[in-house]
Amino acid sequence: MFRCSTLAACLSIALSPAAMAGEAPTFNLFGDIQGQGIWQSGAGSTFNAEAKSVNLGGKGKYAVKDITTYYTLSAQYSDNFDDIEVRNASLYFSTKYGGFYVGKGASGSYANVYARTDIHANNNNDPSGKNRMLYEQGMYTDNTFCYVSPKWATESGTWQMKAAIVTYNEVNEASDDALMGRLLYSKGGFNAVLNYLRFDENAGPEGTEKAYNRFAAGADYTIENLTLAATVEITDNSFNGAENTYAGAVVYSMNEVDFGVSYQHKTFETDLDDLGLVIASLKYHYGEQLTFYVEAAEYTEDTADYANFSGNRFANSDDNFAVGAIFKF
Fold this sequence. Notes:
Keywords: Signal. This is Outer membrane protein (Porin). InterPro entries: Porin_dom_sf (IPR023614). Residues 1-21 form the signal peptide. The chain is mainly β and 329 residues long. It has a single domain (42-328), classed as Porin, CATH 2.40.160. It has 3 helices and 17 strands. Strands 1-2-3-4-5-6-8-9-10-11-12-13-14-15-16-17 form a 16-stranded antiparallel beta barrel. Strand 2 (46-64) and strand 3 form a beta hairpin. The protein starts with 5 loop residues before the first helix and ends with a strand.
């Protein structure tokens, strides 16, 4: 079974005789701290002051001949899971024939398709958040091997392809828990992407007989200070009874202030009613490192009715209002 030993690979590159004999590899620290006060309604209605997330990591690169290696290692702490989790331990090899990514880190499907509508500081798909987004795609993934093609510039626009195999569950009978194919396009202020994921039936719950197919598409268009974005997720034979999710977002920037509004709508294969989520936020960027925000979110249905969906996924989700700040370095 394919498995990634990225941390060891990072260290071997940094300490190898070739690296020490040639140009020294770079390694720069980065991170962010997000704190907020949040009011949440429902049965557990309360006010909490929390460290929503603390991220700390390092990244760098090493170039030798025709290959440039990028490496990243980072971890996250949050009051909401009260632990330290490794979020990224990855290598990316860039060549004139394309790039190869190996390790764990931010999901490419999330970054290329879903991030365009996941625009808010509190209600977002980061694991540190209490409130769950409605789409099925996670923000991070483990054990990924991905090929990234060069970009092809044409008169009609710029194109790129990506393909990956993911083995996030090491104990099942599948050696390809998920297979991914992606096509990206951009021209001027317009960007679009088509994404396909196939999950092996052996990666599903016991007794699963059919593979799970997930199709997603995203697009965004920027006109001066206004950005319009949309994401569509369509599932077939999902492992948890989810059906489709539709999301739209609008961001307007005025000097140091960003106004953002988004809406997500989810359908289910079961008899659950459709569920919607509307979020509005205001961000004030006080310089490059510090951002203040105010944010409110409301679900269209009582999330308690969905508590049993997908392992109590919405157990802590409810209407909320947050005031907070993010410091980055």
